[in-house]
Predict the structure of Protein translocase subunit SecA.
Amino acid sequence: MLIESDRRFQETLPKVNNRPRLLVRRDEAGKKDRIGPAGRLECSGSIVYYSGQGFGIQRGEYHQLAHRSVSRHAPQRGAEVPARWWALVEQIQTLQAEYASRSEADLFDEWNALRYRVQSGESLTDLLPEAFAIISEQMQRHLGMTPYPVQYLGAIAMHEGAIAEMQTGEGKTLTAALTLCLNALPELGMHIATANDYLAERDARWLSPIYHSLGMTVGTVTATSSMSERRAAYECDITYGTAREFGFDYLRDLLNSPELKTSTSPRRQQLFGQEQTGEDQGLLNPRSPYMVLIDEADSILIDEARTPLIIGQADALEASLSEVCQWSATAVARLAESEHYLDHGPQKGMELTEAGRRVIRELLLQPEAPQSLDPGTAYLSSERALKVQSYFQNGRDYVVREGKVAIVDEFTGRISEGRMWQNGIHQAIEAREGVEITSPTRVGAQTTVQELFARYTRMAGMTGTAASARSEFKKVFGTPVITIPTNRPGRREQLPERVFLTAEEKWTAIVEETAVLHAQGRPVLIGTRSVNLSKQLSERLEAAGLDHEVLHALNHENEATIIERAGQSGKITVATNMAGRGTDILLSDDVVAQGGLHVICAELHESSRIDRQLTGRAARQGDPGSARVYLSLEDEILTSGLGAEQAAALRADYQRSGRNLQSAVRYFYQAQQRVEKRHERQRVELVNRISARRQMLQQMGQHANLNAH
């Protein structure tokens, strides 16, 4: 007998021996297996089939039948959610149906009643079904949207302190709002860290009608926020911002702590360059850290966690520094690799050989050399200039904007406002670009992403690409990853990679494929690794007569408009990582009929998660779409992962032998994996280094995050 079966749905399933598809076989020993959305089913010696309305059990005893389906769409992934979560989803939907007939005033009173129950000691988990039902009803009224069952699952997972892995396009923004509202009930200050300022402002603005309908306040903290605006934002029930801004505000508050608070403190004058008056006085966030929800958790907690958050202490700009940096930028043109210097890689940098030092000493004897420059300083300055020459590119690592060098974040493609490289690198770049040289900085206060979020009582997150970092999430943060099933079957067609011998051939092929799809009326999104490559591709498209739009760090002010149009028929959009995480490209009906959005990944990034986020822009929420990766044996990822020598040997081998280039695909992914492993080691080293430093400073009776004295 098949229990709770839907015979019509069974007819659409693949058949095995004339039966619906077998999902789980339980052995006679009673070993527990995961079975789709129902979690673990307590039975023995049974064969379980999905029926469309639930799970049927044949030939065996059962103690608890799994849930009745709450969505007409069968979950598309092996879910890792307990059966009790699905029961909660049914409760939420039943309650929301009851709330649908209630007035706004009634819903407001119901929400306030939940607030009082929390203050009386009732747990948030017990209140979850009622809270989610009220929030969902307000979402329907104010946004015209009701969460799907899988969105409830994601919100429950985050409430219970997990990283919810939800595929791109599954509605993480709405999912986050459920968790935020519930956990803001205790009025302790709920924070959400987004991937960038744009998403923080966008999401807070879009969801504000929901928060306001519940009597909750919402604020945002961005790079351009004033001190008074930051203070007001932290007083809100829900605060949107970035990990970077939350971290810097924590450091600012440390520097504004009672023992450093007097405006005449030399240390404060060192760190801030002036006495603190007016709006700069007082703590930005006097509350104890309660709970933080991290959007794009893999990007924030893993990809970007190799870089510590540092507030610099301004050094006096020596009159000779500009002259020394400019002289070194010119002098290194006389040096040749191997003969005059050794390249030890981007981490260790360059080392002058004896022959190289001899050249530098000879150059110091020339009339144009700074008179006060001694050989030791000249060696160090030249090694920095060589490192900049080899490893820092204008248009990739930074841009020159309004006469200043601005760092471009490698993971988001956006300008990192106010950030500077240390140890003289920033000044060496400024000298090379011929802009005004800024004062160097020393570390005044610092923390890491790991330290920052460890301060919170509770932490959770969500992302579309967490599975590959599952072990690191658990090891470093103690946070499990729960994969949430998709709402609709995925329809993205992942086309085979195309490999070319040279970058020139690759870019030509990208333009050709774009032209074909454009003629068919399909929109095309082309993702590049840098501002420079975006500009170069734009020139090629223009030469081919293809109208297009470009999105990168230098024209971010048009971001919302460009993304809004990217799904229109025949639209061509060239973008850096800015069009990856968090962007939702909506398709018109005619585009859906033509096959949806096509995404071209023009080159592998150093993190595979960035590539998956890019291709995930296509085929969202059951829409059709396709994606393809383009590769050339001149791509940067081969040099980064395999080393310059091995990458050159690989190119020479394929050029000489004439072998099928498709066989080279594996080398690109091997190189990417090596880079990811190297970055993982760097994150571990950073954690260990910061931990050792913390212990040393604590033993000396000093604060672990404060350096200047």
